[in-house]
Design brief:
It catalyses: tRNA(His) + L-histidine + ATP = L-histidyl-tRNA(His) + AMP + diphosphate + H(+). GO terms for molecular function: ATP binding; catalytic activity, acting on a protein; histidine-tRNA ligase activity; transferase activity. It is found in: Cytoplasm. InterPro entries: aa-tRNA-synth_II, aa-tRNA-synth_II/BPL/LPL, Anticodon-bd, Anticodon-bd_dom_sf, His-tRNA-ligase, HisRS-like_core, HisRS/HisZ, HisRS_anticodon. The protein is an alpha+beta fold. It has 2 domains: 246 residues, BirA Bifunctional Protein, domain 2 (2-Layer Sandwich); 91 residues, 3-Layer(aba) Sandwich (Rossmann fold). It is built from 15 helices and 16 strands. The strands form 3 sheets. Strands 1-5-6-11-10-9-7-8 form an 8-stranded mixed beta sheet, sandwiched between helices. A 5-stranded mixed beta sheet has the order 13-12-14-15-16, sandwiched between helices. The protein has a 3-stranded antiparallel beta sheet with strand order 2-4-3. The longest helix is centred in the first third of the chain and has 18 residues. The relative contact order is 0.11.
Length: 424
């Protein structure tokens, strides 16, 4: 019987995993500079958390969640996004009693039953940030700039920041009624999916990519013209702080996010090199989320970035991450005695931080050298009975072909010189 990975999932194999490690390392470093600390939440939660947090009439909850009953007949869902879990943890662990705001970041797998396509999988990986318990518009600008800075660290540029305000619970209901009235008047021009959304979730119509729908949407009432005074002032302040940072942005009054918990600021960072799926990451404020799932009025803002989507963007622009696979030294052994002594040398070199390898298949010298080449070994050395008796061997630079006679007892010191010399 042949087994394959489930549709919409991928094995991430070496050397590709080195790229993931590099991204994660750079993320840890940068987010720490902004005083964001890592949080790790469970991969599954009680289903109601996502129903209440994300919204029961969203595509994610209605169509895309992996939900099942556990052995205690409790409804469990693999997390489709990270924010609801972070807020649940914040409330459950009473972090609101500590100095605020709280700044978290996370990296991990998410799960959505979607149609697999380029950059979109059923198990995918996100890194994200959440800043909780402050409504300061400066924090909105900080979050956006942090995401941009992360992408710039990987070599991405020419990115577009799309910015909008989706209002609050005071002004959005009036806007939704205006939008609903307009959509009903133009219902005949909408796709079937959008027709069904008019009553359930009319804001989602604004996100439709259907050509006929986009024609209708372009003339729809704009939420930016229907904001209350508080929302309008907050939106203007966010723009002012972005101006302070010299961050260019495009006001996009049709921008909505796919989750019901968003309020006020909403944003997306787009990369035109990706084609139709051009959003690299997005986020916004969710000032009502903590109240919805925990009856505590706490503002928050964050973003999530798909690692698969990031790698696609890097590939589209021909950007190679500075990662190297291979070993510093491959020891080719001849005979059992040489293997034992080489095993000792391996251990000593590894303890000093060198990436080293030797043969474990009892192959001939030629096959071992081919293996060293496949492993991208920087140096190779052949150790047999003669080399042991003479306490000397020839170490070879695999790139240049240069060779050097060394004392085996000085191998560690010689490797330190060679690797340092190459690094300079």
């Amino acid at each position: 019987m042949k087994f394959n990975a489930p549709r919409g999932t991928n094995d991430i194999l070496p050397p590709e995993t080195l790229k993931w490690q590099y991204i994660e390392k750079k993320t840890h470093e940068l987010f720490s500079n902004y005083n964001y600390q890592e949080i790790r939440t469970p991969i599954f939660e009680y289903t109601e958390l996502f129903q209440r947090g994300i919204g029961e009439v969203t595509d994610i909850v209605e169509k895309e969640m992996y939900t099942f009953e556990d052995k205690g007949n409790r409804s469990i869902t693999l997390r489709p996004e990270g924010t609801a879990s972070v807020i649940r943890s914040f409330l459950e662990n009473k972090i609101y009693g500590q100095a605020q705001p709280t700044k978290y970041y996370y990296i991990g797998p998410m799960f959505r039953y979607e149609r697999p396509q380029s950059g979109r999988f059923r198990q995918f990986h996100q890194l994200g940030v959440e800043a909780i318990a402050s409504n300061d518009p400066a924090l909105d600008a900080e979050i956006i700039s942090l995401g941009i800075r992360l992408l710039q660290n990987f070599g991405l540029d020419n990115l577009e920041v799309h910015l909008n305000s989706v209002g609050c619970k005071d002004c959005r209901p009036d806007y939704v009624e205006k939008l609903k009235k307009y959509l009903i008047e133009n219902k005949d021009q909408l796709c079937d999916n959008c027709k069904s959304r008019i009553e359930r979730n009319p804001l989602r119509v604004l996100d439709c990519k259907n050509k006929s729908c986009k024609t209708v949407i372009n003339d729809a009432p704009k939420i930016t013209n229907n904001l209350c005074d508080n929302c309008a002032e907050h939106f203007e302040d966010v723009q002012n702080y972005l101006d302070v940072l010299d961050l260019e942005y495009i006001i996009n009054p049709l921008l909505v996010r796919g989750l019901d918990y968003y309020t006020n600021t909403a944003f997306e960072i787009k990369d035109n090199a990706l084609g139709a799926q051009d959003t690299v990451f997005g986020g916004g404020r969710y000032n009502g989320l903590a109240e919805e799932i925990g009856n505590r009025d706490l503002p928050g803002i964050g973003f999530a970035l798909g690692i698969e989507r990031l790698l696609l963007s890097l590939e589209a622009k021909g950007i190679e991450l500075p990662v190297e696979s291979g070993v510093d030294l491959y020891i080719t052994v001849i005979g059992e005695k040489a293997k034992i002594e080489s095993f000792k040398l391996l251990d000593k070199l590894r303890n000093e931080g060198f990436r080293t390898e030797m043969d474990y298949l009892d192959r001939g010298v030629g096959s071992q050298m081919k293996s060293a080449d496949r492993m991208n070994a920087e140096y190779t050395i052949i150790i047999g009975e003669d080399e042991l008796n003479n306490n000397s061997a020839t170490i070879r630079n695999m790139k240049s072909g240069d060779e050097k006679e060394i004392q085996l007892s000085n191998l560690l010191e010689e490797m330190k010189k060679l690797v340092d010399k190459e690094a300079v």
